[in-house]
Amino acid sequence: MPHIDRLLRRGTVFAALLLVSLAGARAQNETPGTGAKKNHTAYLYAPYKWAHGLFDIDRFARNGLSARDESGQQYEWVTLVETKKPTADAPAKICTLTAFRDLISKNADDMGILVLSSHGGKDSLSVEAFASEKARDDQYDAYIRAGFTKDQIAKTSNDDSFAISVTDKFIQTYRNVGQAIVYISACEGGSLADDFTDAKGLGQPAAKLARVALGGNSAAKVAAYAEYGARFFSALDGQPYKGKAEADRVKQRAVKAAFDAANAIQGVAADPNFRVEFILTGDGATTLAPVVQDDLAPCISPLKAGDTITFTFDTNCDTTVVPKVLAAGGGVTLGAPVWKRGVSNVLTVPVTAPAVATNTFKITLQGDSVKAGKNTANLDGNSNPDKVNGRGPATAAKKSDDYVIEYQNGTRVH
Amino acid sequence: MSRFALSFAITLLLGAAAVRSGSAQFPPPPSPAPVCKAPATDPAVPPRPEPAVQGWLILHGQLVPAPYTVTVANDTVAVNGYLFSQRTASSTATLDTGSHAALFQQFWSLWPGWCSTRDLASAAQQAVAWWQAAPGVASATLIAGGVADLQVRFTDSPDPETLSLQVPDDSPPVDQIRAQTLSELAQEVDNDLSYGRLLIVEDEGRIFSPAAGESADLVAQIEQISTLPTADARYQALLAILPDARMATSIAQRFGTPLSPAPSTSQEVSHAPH
């Protein structure tokens, strides 16, 4: 937007307002969460890890979401994974129906993302695997006696085991996921997506629903689902997966954009067994953490008193928290940052010195001082990795990923 | 295998082989792929920093003292000899497999062959015909609106059975997957503990790892909470800082209690605290 740059350099109020207006209009993303709780934990539920092995989605999800030094949006990470094939002597002990019920009903304050990896069918997801038909039937009867109903749970089987599956009615009854992102890596998992996001006339508060949910719309190989997950979660983390264009990297950090990009590639895979398309319900304008939109950053050099530095984020932020912005070099000093009224993603910072313009300076927006509007995520800046914006790892405690604007002799070097 | 599938398989194998050098004692990865370079999932990821500080392990509610040595032993992951999962003694009792088990076994053995010679929809139709002809079957139909969900009703059961007719994977045998899983998990645990992370482990499949930088504070909070006088008070306080109620329960009951000696890894059954 060179014309806006020129106008801004002249310091016209009109141009500044125009830029802010355009930027604000693009700010519809939110992180998961209700705005009242942490909602910063990723939960993985995988009852068939013992069968899927390296084809399961767990590593790809964690790389994009969680606590890695080199990547990930720094969400806390909890696994409920069945690592051993159930036997008559040792039935499933982690991934059981009651554990699944508790998972989706008792973690609303912490849940930011729920990743489900299993077998599935239309309005059905396998949550507990069994060694035999008899063991499954006995446990099914026990669950019915315990109060679960036959429209909530079903007897199913797949090429790995017998199973008890939950239905759409089960999800609608027990859902309490705190406006999380729900990702269902299972055949036809997408048929349950709306059961996480839509009220369905049941009168439950919005905080019990998911903000967005997506899942498969096919019955492809498990490995194909893992590939889809690798694309999707690397996109949420801003990673350049398999040659993705740099210009797309930051834009595809939002769920809907990542979903569209993955569908566009994998939905048309030449091998039909690797062809996977997902369906999405809810609000796909969802990111894991805020990012400064580089493409909206005006050229701010030279800088002088009276200018305004504008940071436009791709995600709405907590505007009750005033971020810390530091200046160094060129005699630059700054006034107090101010959130623009009416939107939650535009931060302006007045420049109070020098009187004579300078073209060598460094502005640092501290990553740990920029908070997401809906959960406790912090900025994913351009300092970690160095000089790469919006790519994981995001800011974590004691490990800030600041956003830096540095000019030397009029050339932006950071 | 298509080029697309081949590419992804290579990605998986390289990712599995990405082992950071360290003190852990792992069995060699069962994958036949050579260990030759960094994860292929994203070659643009910067190199991993050098190990910084020792992490913390809370296993079954108890703090295991550092330094840590991660191994695979007794068919589970062990740290300093403490096993993540208990091994279950095998029974000689005859398994009652169920009244239709033989039919299911026969069907699932046929299914991959059908999928290898026709597309999913055609294979599903073959499955319907097969089940309709099977003894003791009242009906077999594809569920309307589903991609490949086959519902079978038996004459002797009031509950229907739904079969998920997914395209079969070319998965290795379960034993090989098990070895891969343990090796991969041991690497992850060693990685986390070598980079100053807290791991709270209830079982090899139930693990909590906080975000980077939060571990030291979280350990300090847990230690502080462990001084509260009652288990219930400790549980409530822990629940406020941990995202898993079961872990909060274990820590409330066991944190600070003396750790039993680590079991010999040659033992069949672990006596790790549980």
Observed structural traits:
heterodimer, A: 414 residues, alpha+beta, Immunoglobulin-like, 2 domains, four-stranded antiparallel β-sheet, 18 strands, disordered N terminus, B: alpha+beta, three-stranded antiparallel β-sheet, 7 helices, elongated, disordered C terminus
Topology:
The complex is a heterodimer of chains A (414) and B (274).
Chain A: H1 2-10, H2 13-25, E1 41-46, H3 49-52, H4 58-65, E2 76-81, H5 97-105, E3 111-117, E4 120-121, E5 124-130, H6 133-145, E6 153-157, E7 162-167, H7 168-174, E8 181-185, H8 193-197, E9 212-216, H9 222-236, H10 246-251, H11 255-266, E10 278-282, E11 308-312, E12 325-328, E13 333-334, E14 338-339, E15 346-353, E16 361-365, E17 403-408, E18 411-412
Parallel strand pairs in A: 1-2, 1-3, 3-8, 8-9
Antiparallel strand pairs in A: 4-5, 5-7, 6-7, 9-10, 11-15, 12-16, 13-15, 14-15, 16-17, 17-18
Helix pairs in contact in A: 4-9, 9-11
Chain B: H1 3-17, E1 56-59, E2 62-64, E3 70-73, E4 76-79, E5 82-83, H2 101-117, H3 120-133, E6 137-142, E7 149-154, E8 161-164, H4 174-194, E9 198-203, E10 206-209, H5 215-225, H6 231-241, H7 245-254
Parallel strand pairs in B: 1-9
Antiparallel strand pairs in B: 1-2, 3-4, 4-5, 6-7, 7-8, 9-10
The level-1 CATH class of the largest domain in chain A: Alpha Beta
What is the β-strand count of chain A?
18
Q: Do you know the CATH architecture of the largest domain in chain A?
A: 3-Layer(aba) Sandwich
Average of the residue pLDDT scores of chain A = 91
**Order of strands in the sheet with the most strands of chain B?**
2-1-9-10
Briefly note the structural class of the backbone of chain A. Answer: alpha+beta
Looking at how many chains there are and whether they match, the oligomeric state comes to: heterodimer
Category by helix and strand content of chain B: alpha+beta
Number of domains of chain A: 2
How much of the sequence lies in strands of chain A comes to 15-25%
Helix and strand run of chain B: HEEEEEHHEEEHEEHHH
Largest sheet of chain A: 6 strands, mixed
Flag low-confidence runs of chain B: 13-43, 266-274
Shape of chain A: elongated
- Largest interchain contact: A-B, 96 and 88 residues
* Helical segment count of chain A: 11
Portion in helices of chain A: 10-25%
Distance between the termini of chain A: 19 Å
Q: Biggest sheet of chain A: strands side by side, in what order?
A: 2-1-3-8-9-10
